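ok so I'm stuck.
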Amino acid sequence: MAVDKAMRVLVVDDYQTMRKVVSHLLKKLGFQNIDEAADGTEALKILRANSQYGLIITDWNMKPMSGLQLLHKAQADPDLKNIPFIIITAESKAENVIAAKEAGVSNYIVKPFDENTLKAKMINIFGYFK
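replied:
not stuck anymore, here's the structure
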């Protein structure tokens, strides 16, 4: 299976600069349908209004709803549970990685990262890039 660069991607981070960085990396990889949310609560509203996303890339540490909490809520929603998730964090602690995997995360990226890391994680989820 190949990565569908036309799919909608939701980037969730409480820092606007980080949202812009991730969106820029996605654009460099050929993605154009990118939306952004400032936290998990806003992301959940967006997702419930339109569940046609092919990927969610979210920061772990956000308030009032963390990326892990967003993942749990999405997993519990029949319309959202099959959307792949990549969680981004500055934490590389084994217990965080285990918690994310147990929650059903598709992949995990530790900051800092570049477009090659993002591409590799997406290939791991979706298959090759065209």
